[in-house]
Write a structure and sequence with these properties.
By secondary structure, the protein is mainly alpha-helical. The chain has one domain. It is built from eleven helices and no strands.
């Protein structure tokens, strides 16, 4: 015989299938991203759907609760778009087309003509690009895929999520493996639901704190900057840093109290990163900062901004799987991991 080791052949075949699966996931990453965003959007709406489902007269189907939840969400989106969106667009237009700040002009008068020309050129480019960058990021939702496809997919995930879960469990025979799979799916469910709620709360806290401070201090384009900082909260680590740079730059070139703005941002980041966020996140999404930075850069390399957004939940899911299999390997009795609480 050829002397082929069956065990080695089995491991080789398993490794080949795993590499093939990773390659297929990478090739279909754009489509998978839409479905992942739909799942996260479903988790965002699930508390409202569950609340409505409890008080509605019929509990045979969740369709009525889903429809009412979508109506409420759409109404809130329209209200926010009218009340805040119009002001954001107005301030972005004013920032792009506004005159050069007096503070910059007075400083330019004391510099050589060649340097004046270069500084003026780059300042105008900065003023033109900053709102465009912010509006492009905030305008991602204007894409038809995000506006229509994701809510539709989320509707089916919310409506038939329990059926999908049952079909996945039926792929595994009854026994310890099915119990393990059931526990892992429960852990993932709790983790994603908790993570999405915390992200929204942190984003709302950032918008509230920034808008109030900018209004008190009199920072120009305050609503625009607060919305930008709030949106960038969804990008781990690099989002708040980018928001801080943009806000301080706009405050500086507009002749505002940029030093006071910088002090406020540093103080708020300490409060949120070391107080509010750990308190809300709990222990379920706690990751080492180096691991978070690695995930952010790796996600950006693989999928751009969506990759950075998904880096933390992916790493947290990997942590859940590692803890589950580690517990199984140590021979402990299978039980739900208590690292996540909804």
């Amino acid at each position: 015989m050829l002397g082929v080791d069956r065990r080695a052949a089995k491991y080789t075949w398993t490794a080949f299938l795993l590499v093939l699966l990773i390659w297929l996931v990478y090739m279909a990453r754009a489509t998978l991203l839409v479905f992942i965003l739909a799942v996260l959007f479903a988790y965002l709406l699930s508390p409202l759907v569950n609340l409505l489902d409890r008080f509605l007269p019929t509990n045979k189907t969740r369709t009525l609760a889903l429809a009412l939840a979508y109506v409420i969400f759409l109404g809130l989106a329209v209200f926010i778009g009218i009340e805040i969106g119009t002001r954001v667009v107005e301030q972005a237009t004013a920032l792009t087309q506004g005159p050069a700040p007096k503070a910059v002009e007075s400083w330019l008068k004391s510099t050589p003509p060649a340097l004046q020309a270069e500084v003026t050129k780059h300042t105008n480019e900065l003023l033109a690009e900053l709102p465009q960058i912010g509006l492009k990021f905030l305008g991602v939702a204007s894409n038809l895929i995000f506006v229509f496809i994701i809510p539709i997919l989320s509707f089916f995930f919310l409506k038939d999520g329990h059926l999908i879960r049952e079909h996945i469990l039926e792929l595994v025979e009854e026994g310890p493996r099915r119990v393990l799979l059931d526990d892992i799916m429960a852990d993932i469910h709790l983790l994603l639901a908790h993570y999405m709620r915390v992200l929204v709360l942190l984003s709302l806290a950032t918008f509230t704190a920034y808008s109030i401070f900018f209004s008190i201090v009199g920072v120009p384009y305050g609503i625009l900057l607060a919305v930008l900082a709030s949106a960038l909260e969804f990008i781990p680590t690099m989002g708040p840093v980018a928001a801080a740079i943009i806000i301080v730059a706009v405050a500086a070139v507009s002749g505002s109290h940029w030093l006071l703005v910088m002090i406020f941002i540093v103080a708020y980041r300490f409060f949120q990163d070391y107080g509010l966020a750990p308190h809300l996140m709990g222990h379920g999404v706690q990751l080492h900062p180096l691991l978070v930075l690695f995930g952010v850069f790796a996600g950006a390399e693989l999928a751009g901004i969506p990759g950075t957004f998904l880096s933390v939940p992916v790493l947290a899911l990997a942590r859940v799987l590692y803890l589950r299999f580690r517990r199984l390997r140590l021979g402990l009795q299978a039980s739900p991991i208590t690292t996540v609480r909804s």
